[in-house]
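Hi R.,

Here's the chain you asked about this morning:
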Amino acid sequence: SCVGLRNLLQGLNFSVRYYSKHNHLQTTCFYNKIKPKKCHMLNCAGSTCTHRTVPPGSILPWRFFSCKEGTKIPSKRKQNTSIITSELLYKNLLKSEQENWNDVSAQYKAMTKIIKEKLEELHKYTFNSGSPRVMPYLQDFFAISFFYVVDEGNVGILFSTEDFGFSDAFIQRIRISPDQRYMAISLKSENSEEATCVIMKLGHFPLVEKVIPNVFSFEWAANDVLYYTSQKNLKCQNVFMTTFTNQKHTKLVYTEQDARFFVDIHCTKDRRFLTINSNSKTTSEVWLVDCRDPFKLPALVQARIKGVIYHIEHRNDELYILTTYGEPAEYKLMKAPVASSGTDNWQLVYALEEKTKLVDLEMFRDHCIMFLKNAGHLYLRVISFVSHSVQSIKLPMWACEFELESHPEHTTSTCYFQLTSPVHPPKRFAYSFKENNLIEQAVQEVPIITNCHTTRLLAKSKDETLVPITVFHNMNSKELHRKPLLVHVYGAYGIDLNMSFKEEKLMLIEEGWILAYCHVRGGGELGLSWHKDGCQYNKLKGLHDLKACIMLLHELGFSQPKYTSLAAASAGGVLAGALCNTDPELIRAMVLQAPFVDVLNTMMKTHLPLTIEEQEEWGNPLADEKCMKYIKSYCPYQNIKTQRYPSVFITAYENDQRIPLTGVLRYVQKLRKAALDHASRTRKKGNWIPNIILDIQANGSHCESSWEDSLNE
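And the predicted structure, written out as tokens:
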């Protein structure tokens, strides 16, 4: 998640906490790189700083970086008449939709006011505020927070985003240099996916040393050596090193030229190595920077092998490798000597069970703790590197999401994390390696409902595969078949459905709603194979899974079609929109946020920033006619037909770089026409015409919004 990135503060032992759109506490550990990112990004093939003759993943010789070197100058072309006409039609269509929204939304003002007041009241109870908060830890007489420095009890402003013209920005990441003389901060606006990195020299009079635009990730390799990756058009392909010695300079260290790969950097828990990670959706490659000698050329761990993903940690002169290498193609923990790190020397430490999802992993000096999920159930797996034992720790049945907290010191003997569900605010837990027990941390009592029942079901899909469903409802509710049902689906990129706490979900439960989360294929709830079984030529399996889930819910007495609504966001719009075409009678309404509904046209446009990378998920219709026909068979836009549709509410964003607004506009226009054509043809008494509403937000982007913006939305 773009807003909710959990970041470890290097050097100073404290954690930054802030609230995302969904307002659950989040902090970042380094192994969040094992989790597929909620906002998918990719690398591009072209490079403005290097020659194309360099093979993919090559290490470049040191050289000074110049913004002029290799800069491409756009050619001046006259706009042709068709482009001007197309732009005019787009502007007129956009204006028409905005006027329509203004008229429609006015009808809901009274209802909106009531709902907003309820959510604000719940928010007061569950969280103190939506603003960033800090838990400072004193070290060497000062600690850094988002904006303040604490010095023996005196508080003063250290850094203000407004001073740099970032009035609408939030602080995404903070890294302190090992000697605590420098602080690197990344600032990001909610209306953009690019971040700016500000480096400050700390002391009695903090000074800004450097400002670097378009930065994605950064880490200190040494006291005065910072590595960072640059991002442009959602692509991240270059790694730079910048120094803060007497002779300051910036050099290009690494470039990636395969358009399917995205590059980021991390630091191992013991700060022994900095890792340059180049990952596609199915393949990865890692290079090591020795933090004891950061000017030395990076060393390759293992050349990329198609279909093999791996990530690196370090302990006692050995590399610990989290990888899909070998059979079965699920995650395994392996190890190898630093000096001979190729696959020939990889030794198995632990392999995951079948249909198990690795959510996160944290390394400590003597232990490794895995956060796992199986059919919706969460549990821990603790591996001791001393006794070589493996223990399994059960977690509360209501828990649906982990949030691992930061552990700056890998020598600590306790692992802290939070558990949450859509209707349970985060609860903090601690696992003690010494005591071998799980402790729920004392928290202030939150006056929330205690009678919410959690049910886990299995629906039999078309090919008889069992698909998990998680259901929440109020235990005091009677006649569940008459209660409204909100079904959630995603099913793409190997990403789990978002089941973190949201005030609006709790409000719906209190109002008597039933919430259902369908963990269909294409997602990651049952491991990597679950994703593989729902991508490319298997996309229709996800649609069959969704249909089976909704039908089972109705058969078991959870609501009925006329009280059922379907919710999806981003790529989840593919399955939701497809079901709307194939089985519209199963639902009464559909709510989509920034939906991907024009798959075929988007995947045919290689100039769009994500198209090349997305081919590993959807296929390449330009190169394969069979793939084109297959995508066309389920693409929501392509399969709209004259029939009775459910009501549809869509939220889209003008500044969305990931989902082209033109595709959403086309989809809405075509859907409205089909619904109206059906109504005019049937002309039956009491014929129902669905509401098809599009709300285009001028602000915001594809990533998560602030609490205030999401509340208004």
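The longest helix spans residues 81-105.

Let me know if you need anything else.
M.
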